[in-house]
Amino acid sequence: MNLTAMNQSDVCQEYLCPERSVSFSVYVILYAAAAAVSLLTVCGNLLVIISVSHFKQLHTPANILILSLAVSDLLVGVFVMPFHLSWLIESCWISGPVMCSVFSFVTFQATSVSVHTVALIAVDRFLALSSPFLYSEKISTAVICIATIFNWLFSLLYNFTLLYVNGKFTDVTCPGECLYIVDEVSSLIDLIVVFLMPCTLIIILYSHVFVIAKRHATAIRALQIHNRTESSKNRVSDKSERKAALALGILVFVFLLCLLPYYIFSLTNFLKDDSFSNLINSVLVLFYLNSSINPLIYALLYPWFKKSVKIIITFKVLNTDSSLMNVLSLSS
């Protein structure tokens, strides 16, 4: 997520605050919608964080990655969405230079952590399906925790260098703007590190996952032919395999659908005019909405999440030893 250097007078001219042209009622509706989306993002990801953190049954390698993704998406809901949507509604940055710096850093940090976490989830699922014995022996919760911590620390160092060592916040002092000026080489590096490499890995690994899932379904159908007495059980397993493959398809499709438009437009950022700036800010809304959708595609598809949410909202989570409650009984 970047903006390459341009003439400062052009930047100021582009980002001067215009007069608000919408009626007061529309203005209120827009802010209400923005608040609702931000609240949905925060609440959805908080439920994921509480569920995975609290219930000991959910302390698995795959769920640790879901927890990491939920934390990054929570940052988007708290520090990014409200300010960006306000910026979009006002057509002007009204939160001051300090919040601009916080907003920009959290945007870069949450984005890189989120994308790389999805890539780690792809690696985790591929290993679990392709080499189940190796996975159960080598991939422990501790290993995934170390990988997750490394992901966050790498993103912190990378984004700090990109924005505060190589980037330029202080050179632009226009009123009503919040810009992060990065040179073209760094923009290209950012595109490769944060988008092209992880997304290529995701597509390749999930393609193999689909092949493995199809192979499993074929094996199950073969067992049905040789063992009619277990056909009902096998049909359930076959349906489960196809459902898992469908869930992965939805996951990859929605993830890329939210990310691709911004990076496609960012590749054409040499077209710096008013229409481009308005378009890129609008496309960023879809980019951030991925943080709202993630709790649905990563957690709501799991039966344990529905059960843990029920326990949380009924305050049973406050009971003694509630962390030991069985939340996996519906996942069979």
SSE inventory with pairings:
Blueprint: E1 3-4, H1 8-15, H2 24-54, H3 61-90, H4 96-130, H5 132-138, H6 141-165, E2 181-182, H7 184-226, H8 231-266, H9 274-300, H10 303-313
Parallel strand pairs: 1-2
Describe this structure in words.
The chain has a single domain, classed as Up-down Bundle (Rhopdopsin 7-helix transmembrane proteins), CATH 1.20.1070. The protein has helices at about 10-15, 25-55, 60-90, 95-130, 130-140, 140-165, 185-225, 230-265, 275-300, 305-315, and strands spanning about 5, 180. The protein starts with a strand and ends in a 19-residue tail after the last helix. The protein has a two-stranded parallel ribbon. The longest helix has about 45 residues, at about 185-225. With about 325 residues, the chain is mainly α. Residues about 1-10 and about 230-240 have low confidence and may be disordered. It is built from ten helices and two strands; from the N terminus they run βααααααβαααα. α2 packs antiparallel against α3 (about 60-90), α2 (about 25-55) runs parallel beside α9 (about 275-300) and α4 crosses α5.
Assign a percent range to the helix content.
over 70%
Whole-number tally of structural domains: 1
Give the distance, in angstroms, between the N- and C-terminal Cα atoms.
Answer: 41 Å
| CATH C-level | Mainly Alpha
- The averaged pLDDT comes out at 78
Strand content: under 5%
Task: Identify the overall geometry.
Answer: globular
Low-pLDDT sequence parts = 2-11, 229-238
Q: How are helices and strands ordered from N to C?
A: EHHHHHHEHHHH
